[in-house]
Each structure stands twice: as C-alpha cells, then as structure tokens.
Amino acid sequence: MNGVLMQYFEWYYPADGTLRGKLTEEAENISNLGITAVWVPPACKGEQGKESRGYDIYDFYDLGEFDQKGTIRTKYGTKEEYIRMIEALHQYHIQVYADVVFNHLAGADETERIWVRKMNPESNTEFISEPFEIEAATRFTYPGRNKKYSDFI
C-alpha cells in the first residue's frame, strides 16, 4: 500500500502559535481523508522567535520551552503542544516527518574577532584580499536554556 504525505504548513502561516494545536485537533479528520504521514515545519526556536518560520535556527534543543529570542513558544506553538500533536497523530497511525535544517544557525548570543579573506565570487578557490580581522556573530551560549539537555555552546 502506498502512503500519502501531507505538508501541514506553508510559508505564510500566521505567527499565532496555533499550528500544533490545530493539527492535533485535525488528526482524526486527516486520517479519515487517507493521509498516512504529515510533514511539519522545523520545531526549534529560530532567531526571529515567535515570528520565525523555523529555517533561521537558533537553538536545536528549544522546541518552545525556554524564554529565548523574546518568546517561549515558537511560531507554531509550545513544546507541550508539539508532543501532544505527535501523540494525537500516532493515535491515528499517522507518521510525522519534522523538517530539520542542521546547517542553518542564526541569532548568535555573542560576537568574536576572527580572521577572514575575501574570495573571488566566481571561484571559491581564489583569494582576492589579504587576511583581515572582523567582528562576527559566531558564539551561541543559549543562556535561556541554561545548559538543560546539553552543555554544548
């Protein structure tokens, strides 16, 4: 039997924290429609807090639990709502595919001085400047999470 995957979000979804709760309420109806899997947006806190679509990852461990970037919830809801959503979907044998973007980090907590060189925009192997120092937003310390789940910074 072939399954049917539904993308349950879109770029312009309102930043009102309702997506997770709405999907929880719709689980039975979605199952009755023959949907066997849903694709949900990135779950973690983004640089833009509750306005973040999830692709500007700030903290992989914050699913809407910690007061960071001006909010506890994400654009789509809280951690508790995320867990309830998954449980409700699984109750109706619906698989959940969470979008995860590991190579995007944004909203560093601190800056540091680093050395860089300009590159030829037509060739990523050709330097077009001597090394020079810049201030870069590269330090992620996650003070709102206070090392819960991971002490990695």
Structure description:
- The protein is α/β, with parallel strands linked by helices and 153 residues long.
- It has a domain at 5-98: Transcription Regulator spoIIAA.
- 18% of the residues lie in helices and 25% in strands.
- Helix 1 links the parallel strand 1 (5-7) and strand 2.
- The longest helix is centred in the N-terminal third of the chain and has 14 residues, at 19-32.
- It is elongated and about 65 Å long.
- The N and C termini lie far apart (45 Å).
| Rg value | 19 Å
Mean pLDDT: 95
Provide a count of the helices: 2
Low-confidence stretches: none
* Major β-sheet profile: 3 strands, parallel
Structure described in brief:
By secondary structure, the protein is an alpha/beta fold. 18% of the residues lie in helices and 25% in strands.
SSE diagram, text form:
Layout: E1 5-7, H1 19-32, E2 37-40, E3 45-46, E4 57-59, H2 79-91, E5 95-98, E6 110-116, E7 119-120, E8 123-127, E9 132-139
Parallel strand pairs: 1-2, 2-5
Antiparallel strand pairs: 3-4, 6-9, 7-8
Helix pairs in contact: 1-2
